[in-house]
Amino acid sequence: MSVNGSWINVFGSVVSLEQKEEGVVIGTYTSTTGASGSYWVVGFTDPNPPANGNGQSLAFAILWRSFDGGTPDPSWHYVSGFSGQMVTIEGTPSLVMIHDMVATAVDPGVVEIIGSYPDKLTYVPHTASTPPSGPLPVQLPANGDPVDGNWTCVQDPHIAFFLDVQNEITGLLAGTLTTATGTVHLSGFTDTGAGNDGLTLQGLTVAALLPDGHTVVAIAGSLNLHTNSLTMSWLESDGTAADSTWTQTRLRGLDFVRG
Fold first, then answer.
1. What ranges do the domains of the chain cover?
2. For the segment 238-255, what is each residue's pLDDT rounded down to a tens digit?
3. In which band, very low, low, confident or very high, does the pLDDT at 50 lie, cut at 50, 70 and 90?
4. pTM of this structure
5. Which fold has domain 5-258?
6. What is the pLDDT of residues 158-204, one digit of tens each?
């Protein structure tokens, strides 16, 4: 079982994914609704999904700043976390994903109120171009980034992560996620242009494969540049049977502070 390939949803958006070793996922996302353009995707999937017919857990992250270029608009600051699974429904492999879009700026006519916008999206196989086969480019920021460093969860001190921005242009970041059961790698994106554009909130989205080796998590939210604190949504997913996708993803809100 593998999430490799291209997948399309009812809005005509296409995500092309390549599953690599140890559950690492990279790819691209092409959208024609809301934010229009092409975007990098990073995430994780269960590298050893169950043989009992349940789905393969999957989580990935996107910054809605198109690598195609174009005229910037407020949506270039937005981030999204996707969490769910690939599962066969009525004979068709499908990605069933809970999508949390974090809007950190008003986009007149599209998003009138800053906040998180959740949705459930289903993708089916699609014939499209293949995703990139290599790692995303790295170009370290000259002076670091406000999200860099160690963060500890207020509600559960066992949860913490270390973040390190890898590319000032794409917003790509790497780091580690620690829970009560161990420490794993994470990857994702942050809106590196938030401060320069005068925003209070800097979008942040990461994904990880948890220490059990099967459960994935997407963590999406924002850094308040005034209070230096993170407000995040934690979307944790496991593979389920096709008729139980409504139990695949668990959501909770978490806050993080430096330390």
1. 5-258
2. 999 999 999 999 999 999
3. confident
4. 0.95
5. Lipocalin (2.40.128)
6. 999 999 999 999 999 999 999 999 999 999 999 999 999 999 999 99
